[in-house]
Amino acid sequence: MSNDFKDLTLKQASEMLARKEVSASELAQSAINRVKEVDSKLHAFLYLAEDRAAADAKLADDAIAQGEATVLTGIPYALKDNLLAKGLQATAASKILENYIAAYDATVVKKLSQSLPVLIGKTNLDEFAMGSSTENSAFGPTKNPYDLERVAGGSSGGSAAAVASGEVLFALGSDTGGSIRQPASFCGIVGLKPTYGRVSRYGAIALGSSLDQIGVFAKTVEDASFAFQSMAGQDAHDATTLPVPVPDYSSMLSEDIKGMKIGVPKEYFIDGMDPEAEEIVRDAIRKFESMGAHMEEMSLPHAKYSLACYYIILPVEISANLSRYDGIRYGLSVPGKNLEEVYYNSRSAGLGAEPKRRIMIGTYASSAGYFDAYYKKAKQAQALIRKDFTDAFQKYDILLTPTCPTPAFKLGEKVADPLSMYLADVFTVGLNIAGVPGISVPAGVTASGLPVGLQIVAGHFAESKLFHAGFAFEKAMNLNLRPKM
Predict the structure, then answer these.
(1) Overall average pLDDT of the 341-367 stretch
(2) DSSP 481
(3) Cβ atoms of residues 174 and 214 within 8 Å
(4) pLDDT score, position 369
(5) Would strands 76-80 and 170-175 be described as parallel, antiparallel, or unpaired?
(6) Exposure winner among 20, 28, 72, 365, fewest CB in 10 A?
(7) Is the CB of residue 57 less than 8 Å from the CB of residue 28?
(8) Neighbours of 145 (CB within 10 A)
(9) Active site residue 11
(10) What are phi and psi of 174, to 5 degrees?
(11) Average pLDDT over residues 344-358
């Protein structure tokens, strides 16, 4: 079983459980064995929750025996370590939260647990989800399963690597500016960022409260639709979630996209893009055309301001959200002669370079005299970017773009140059600024075997269109990517 486990999809595993060919406890053990076999090379996990997994698996086996299973029952999954699961550590990959134990479940965890999947552990990320490579983790970087000398992407690199390498069958991550879609592209799997307000953020360690969304990694579009189904919906604990009905996403999967209207924004094919990656994405777009979709080049005129706008709005929200880590209430506390010194010592010791950089930028941009020049302007640009997307979806069902300008880059390649690191998110941040959903689906591999993702974008709350288009494309391509691990 353990060898086959890594190649299973969520759906295949669910069918095996239903036919009683395997028990949830055996599946959980296969996942744990797989983590122990490969994670010393990958470092996708920060924490393996073996006791929790055993307890979850027993509940799942009982439900299966009583004929009360859902498609997720007994399926091994992982959580990015900025999402709370009661009784387990939640570090956000920061020294300042190194020994923090969650006192309650995040809403997504609570909702998922009604379907009885099996939580295997917590995955690595860039500290407080700040970064595009998982190299900003206080506990060391995650490596790419396709090439251990390359990054897995960020900030949810651990979750992406865990799914790609077959350690778990799906995983949750958070996406503030591309943190699910970009690592999904680098690791050759499916990554979904939902509409802002579709999924509760309650119990996610906050980064940028107007941009963060929790989403899902899976091997296939269908698997992603199953996992997403049980997470979506309004939550009384999160006032930004909206009372929009949750459709049955998996029932909308179809290989027929004849007549679908597709826009290809010309701003997303830029100078400096990796030529091989660009060719793979253009081939993918031609594939949609050959399947009978109507294709048209179009423009999102304000897209070029997305990155600049994001790197003002986000740091301002970071400087507010991270002010709670003061060494007083929870997390690391370093003594000092007075209160100010406790703050200073705790934050100096507990926070890494990237959080400090962004807190300073955010504090500056929101301070008296600079607020109008920076933050207010960024919010005005945000309204224009959002309008571009809203207008586009009056005319098109979906938009197609590259997920990233390049395949996975080498570990250490961009660490010394924060700006070139920020540019890794150039095609993903616009969706967070506009609040629209997007999914990254594998489009192919480069000559050296590195995966490249295609980003499919839809209007607010139109995730079903992403699943439909993504499923049809995946079936037509039949790539079936697997790293040799």
Answers:
(1) 93
(2) -
(3) yes
(4) 87
(5) parallel
(6) 20
(7) yes
(8) 30
(9) no
(10) -125, 150
(11) 93
Q: Determine the residue type at 180.
A: I
Question: Is 41 annotated as catalytic?
Answer: no
Residue 268 token pair: 């997303």
Domain limits of the chain? Answer: 1-485
Q: Calculate Rg over the CA atoms of the chain.
A: 21
Query: In terms of Cα–Cα distance, which of 71, 74, 95, 97 is closest to 84?
Result: 97
pLDDT of residue 253: 95
* Residue 8, CA distances (Å) to 53, 76, 165, 383, 404 in order: 19, 11, 11, 43, 27
In the three-class reduction of DSSP (H, G, I as helix; E, B as strand; rest coil), residue 216 is classed as strand
Work out the pLDDT band at 352, boundaries 50, 70, 90.
very high
CB 116 within 8 A of CB 56: yes
* Under 8 Å between Cβ of 247 and 462: no
The predicted structure's pLDDT at residue 1: 55
With tokens 């390359």, the residue in question is: 150
Kindly report the number of other CB atoms within 10 A of residue 413's CB atom: 16
Catalytic pick from 155, 156, 165, 464? 155
pLDDT for the residue 416: 84
Domain 1-485 class in CATH: alpha beta
Tokens encoding 158? 């651990």
**Is residue 173 within a helix (H) or strand (E), and if so which, with residue range?**
strand 170-175
| Residues 53-82: b if buried by 16+ CB within 10 A, e if exposed | beebbbebbebbeeeebbbbbbbbbbbbbb
Over 311-367, what HEC string results? HHHHHHHHHHHHHHCCCCCCCCCCCCCCHHHHHHHHHHHHCCHHHHHHHHHHHHHCC
Q: Could you tell me the two tokens for 232?
A: 């979506």
Residue whose entry in the numeric block shows the structure tokens 């540019």? 423
Residue 200 bears catalytic tag: no
Options 94, 115, 159, 179, the catalytic residue = 179
pLDDT the model gives residue 46: 98
- Identify the burial level of 445 via C-beta atoms within 10 angstroms of its C-beta, where 0-12 means exposed, 13-18 middle and 19 or more buried: middle
Q: Do residues 263 and 392 make contact, with C-beta atoms less than 8 angstroms apart?
A: yes
Given the residues 6, 11, 80, 111, the one annotated as active site? 80
Spatial separation of the C-alpha atoms in residues 336 and 334, rounded to whole Å = 7
Question: In which band, very low, low, confident or very high, does the pLDDT at 417 lie, cut at 50, 70 and 90?
Answer: confident
